[in-house]
Every structure is written in structure tokens, then in C-alpha cells.
Write a structure and sequence with these properties.
Elements (H helix, E strand, L loop, with lengths): L1 E3 L2 H8 L6 E5 L5 H12 L4 E5 L19 H10 L4 E3 L3 H4 L18 H4 L3 H16 L3 E5 L3 H13 L5 E5 L19 H7 L1 H14 L4 H14 L3 E9 L13 E9 L2 E8 L1
Parallel strand pairs: 1-4, 2-3, 2-5, 3-4, 5-6
Antiparallel strand pairs: 7-8, 8-9
């Protein structure tokens, strides 16, 4: 496995290879990230994983400084998973002196996480654009747990004709249904037990919708269940799968989105409906 920390070494490693797959990460890897690597490997082409904790997607007061970092553990996991190249840029490489460019994607970024965390998706779109320019992948792999992010990146790649296929990979979950996330390690033992209420509630709401119950009533029941379990929902919504616009009736491919706070941790999850 090649480890590149400079653009020169990255280009030397990537240039002889064609049709590479990119797995962008912020490190603190878990089985969900390894599922992305496995999906990329299944394409039969070289796999590049990036590890970069991107400062521009964190809001003031968020956990950029304390975000979990474990470079040695991450590298060991990636090597065991069959990754070919790991790109480990520093902040100065990604945002050189005089950096003055940001990428804003309207449309699918406007609501939900975009409203709750203003500027977050601008940071995501900017760093993803930079990674695509540096690695020049044919495909890039993103987890469906961050469904809105997947749609923002798809819109970005389409609008700018970047020539990158965005490949969503199904969410990997714990035995009790909780979606894997690097931030789950922040949960106390008590909150970790409560966290299972989030996927359970989404499954219940999805079942209600499948039975034909009204969207508004199903969402109200779900929000009440989350609060009863000790979670504080930021939003719980049924949205158009691609545009993320809210739906009052399900007449097109749709997604059930939720963000909820539990102690100091903010949990995200979604289901297809």
C-alpha cells in the first residue's frame, strides 16, 4: 500500500493507474468505511482512500479539534482491506496560503443539514472538488448514511461535468440498528443504549407510511417517540430522494431523513420509503 503525503507523491502513485476508485474519509475508520473500500475493490480497479479532517465543513464551536484521529489504526485497517493508495494531505496542501475559492451547491444543500449547519455543505463541496482534481477518479464512493451529502456531491459532479461517477453504498449498522459513525464513540454507555431508538423509530415510521398512513401523522408519531426515548430531533422529514424537497404525499422515490441530538452527540440516519 502506497502512502502519499504530498501532491507530487500522489501524482506519481496515481498517474500510472487508470480508472481508479476514490473513498474520501476523515479517518477514525470503522466497518462502514471498509464497506466503501470493498465496494471500490469490487470494481476491479485500484482504490485510493483519502484521510483528511476538513476544517471548512465544521462550524464554529463544533468538534474539529477533538474529532477522533487514529492515523496508525486507519492505515492498518486500509492495508488489511486491500486499499492500494492512501492520500494523507495536510491543511496547507488542501488550503494553501491565499486560498480564496469555495464551491457552493444550491438545490439539495438548502434544507436539513444545510439549514442546521450553515456553510457545512460548502466545505464538503469544496474539499470534494479538490480531492477529485487531485486524484482524478473514475468513481467515488460515499455512504448512504449521509444521504443528503450523497445528493449534494452528485449534483456537484453533474453540474461541473467532473466525469466522476458517484456510487452510494448502503449504511452499515450495529446489531441493534444504529448506523455506524465515527462520532458514535462520543456516546456514553447510557446514551449508546438510548441511541437504538433512532433506527427503531425510523423503521416504525417507514412501516406506517407503507401502510398508507398520512405523512404528517406518521412523522408526528415518530418525533414523539424520539422525544420519549430521550432524543431531541432537529428534523424528521419525508423528502424527495434526489432533490431533498419535503413531501406531503409519497408519489416519487423518497427518503425518510432524521437528525437528533442525544447528549452531546448529533446522530444522523435515513431510510428508503
Amino acid at each position: 500500500m502506497i502512502i502519499a503525503r504530498t501532491l507530487e507523491k500522489l501524482r506519481h502513485a496515481v498517474t500510472p493507474r487508470r480508472d481508479v476508485g476514490l473513498v474520501p474519509t476523515m479517518g477514525a475508520l470503522h466497518a462502514g468505511h471498509l464497506a466503501l473500500v470493498a465496494a471500490a475493490r469490487a470494481a476491479g480497479t485500484p482504490v485510493v482512500a483519502s484521510i483528511f479532517v476538513n476544517p471548512t465543513q465544521f462550524l464554529p464551536g463544533e468538534d474539529f479539534v477533538s474529532y477522533p484521529r487514529d492515523e496508525a489504526g486507519d492505515l492498518a485497517m486500509l492495508e488489511a482491506a486491500g486499499c492500494d493508495i492512501v492520500w494523507l494531505p495536510d491543511v496547507a496542501t488542501m488550503y494553501p496560503e491565499g486560498d480564496a475559492t469555495r464551491v457552493h451547491v444550491a438545490g439539495p444543500s438548502a434544507r436539513w443539514e444545510g439549514a442546521s449547519r450553515p456553510g457545512h455543505f460548502e466545505g464538503v463541496a469544496t474539499v470534494v472538488t479538490k480531492l477529485f482534481a487531485q486524484v482524478r477518479p473514475a468513481r467515488a464512493y460515499f455512504g448512504e448514511k449521509d444521504w443528503q451529502q450523497v445528493q449534494v456531491v452528485r449534483r456537484l459532479a453533474t453540474d461541473l461535468a467532473l466525469g466522476v461517477e458517484i456510487v452510494p453504498v448502503p449504511t452499515v449498522r450495529e446489531a441493534d440498528g444504529l448506523a455506524l459513525s465515527s462520532r458514535n464513540r462520543y456516546l456514553t454507555a447510557e446514551d449508546r443504549a438510548r441511541a437504538a431508538a433512532l433506527p427503531a423509530t425510523l423503521q416504525d415510521v417507514e412501516a406506517r407510511l407503507a401502510r398508507g398512513e398520512p405523512v404528517a401523522a406518521s412523522l408526528a408519531t415518530g418525533a414523539a417517540a424520539l422525544r420519549a426515548a430521550g432524543l431531541s430531533p432537529d428534523y424528521l422529514a419525508v423528502v424527495a430522494a434526489e432533490t431533498l424537497e419535503p413531501l406531503d404525499e409519497i408519489e416519487e422515490p423518497a427518503r425518510l431523513l432524521c437528525a437528533a441530538r442525544l447528549g452531546k452527540v448529533r446522530l444522523l440516519d435515513n431510510l428508503k420509503v
